Amino acid sequence: MTPRDASEPNGSRWSDLDRPPLNITALRRGLVHEGGLWSEVDVVQRTGSTNSDLVARAAEGRATEGAVLVAEEQTAGRGRLDRQWTAPPRSGLFFSVLLTPSEVPVERWGWLPLLTGVAVATGLSRAAGVDTALKWPNDLLVTVRGEERKAGGILAERAGDGGVVIGVGINVTLKEDELPVPTAGSLGLAGAVSTDRDPLLRGVLRSLEEWYGKWRAAGGDAGVSGLQEAYAAGCATLGREVRAELPGDRAVVGEAVAVDGDGRLVLATEEGVQEPVGAGDIVHLRPA
Questions:
Q1: This protein's superkingdom (predicted)?
Q2: Which helix (H) or strand (E) holds 80?
């Protein structure tokens, strides 16, 4: 990595000693190996969106499956519905990966964001020692002083005809006065035993490689691969009364009772109907 000039507004890459830069050499040594999923790992100091950059690289033929692009700072990070994701430099993990599951039927690719959620939660539990939960479909939750808060999100985008770019943003060392909204959290605020981003990133990517391998070997069958069961076990949305805000200004209220074989959230409504929700915003109305 090229150090940032000390005359820049944010100073040198070492200006915040509590937030050292990622060690690209160690990351490559730990993740890229013969027969493994990860084919290349790049770290950039600053970019608008790692997802947009990696989608463009894939379209230009400059990225293959297993490419990983990490940014120390994102200025235009995006969540679902084009929501903005911002954080101070080196305060979190902001990265995207390119996957090309050619042997899996396209109709099963909708499981990839949920698979990534399971992998991220598993990897962080091992590497950070912090309990995390998943809010359907793409949020990572932590508990801060007894309150459930969002510490991360996942965004999947098609990359050409045969690929998917999955972006992950995780707040690692954000302090209370740096949070973009009061409902946000970070691993540090949740009492993580480690906020060293190098082992955290390696742990998450190794977990993602493991889960993606199981899912791909099962032809994308979430039941056979164990993914459906694992997601349900870690999903904080299940067992709660929720409001699903759907496209077309429609809303459905009911108890979240299951995640079906297609990765949809199944709501049991007061009318006695079980309605699967494939897309939309979910609002937790009461504790599980």
A1: Bacteria
A2: none
